[in-house]
Amino acid sequence: FKRLVHAERVGALPRRIIHQALEMFADEGLGGGWRPHFLREELSAWYTFSTSTDTEVLLKAYHRWGDQMFTKLDGMYAVVILDWKKSTLIAARATIGIKPFYYAYQDQTFIYGSEPKAVLNGLGTNGHLDWEHASEFLALGIMDHDEGTFFREVKQLEGGHFLKLNLKDGSMKKVEYRKRPQVHNGFETSV
Chain centroid to CA 135: how far? Predict the structure, then answer.
């Protein structure tokens, strides 16, 4: 692992906060409805907060519970955490999946953004059409059902998943921490 690139921000990463050997990057406004005040109250038994930001709450939650923190969150978010002690990059997307998260990992560089176009720009390419995913969308009207996108070079992190990138050996694994609700005829059903 050599580089982390937020492809929509030339020369700057999104909001950054540091806590011990952890760094977290989150776009301004993590999204509404995830109720950080409940976590803040629970975490105040172990931590003192120096800001009123959602980002600080999430970073301290990660410090306390590791990747199990995602099971405690509801609402909308997409975050990247660099855990220097564990030599790990963790990217997570909320279960509902409203906040988009697209990424590519190439040449020891992790590139991410909220649109495939931004990731393609970070890769320096216009991309190549993924015929399978384009066909599924055109024939069946489905998308966002897996990590594929219209571009072979770009993946999306599905809602309710996080991925772990080992910064030493470059291995990556994706973990589903919560099932996404299924919607049929406009109504949410259990999975």
Answer: 26
Confidence of residue 186 (pLDDT cuts 50, 70, 90): low
Residue 16 has a pLDDT of 54
CB 134 within 8 Å of CB 84 = no
> What are the residues whose beta carbons fall under 8 Å from the beta carbon of 14, sequence distance 6 or more?
6, 25, 26, 27, 28
CA distance 82 to 32: 23
Nearest to 6 by CA among 24, 20, 18, 22: 24
What burial letters (b/e) apply to 132-148, b meaning 16+ CB within 10 Å? ebeebeeeeeeeeeebb
**What's this model's pTM, rounded to 2 decimal places?**
0.82
**Rounded average pLDDT over 20-44:** 68
- Give the pLDDT confidence score for residue 11 in this predicted structure: 43
Predicted pLDDT at 12: 43
Q: What would you report as the CA-atom Rg of the chain, rounded to the nearest whole angstrom?
A: 17
* Straight-line distance from the first to the last Cα atom of the chain, in angstroms, rounded to the nearest whole number: 36
Structural contact between residues 89 and 110, judged by C-beta atoms closer than 8 angstroms: yes
| 60: region left, alpha or beta (phi > 0 left; psi from -120 to 50 alpha) | alpha
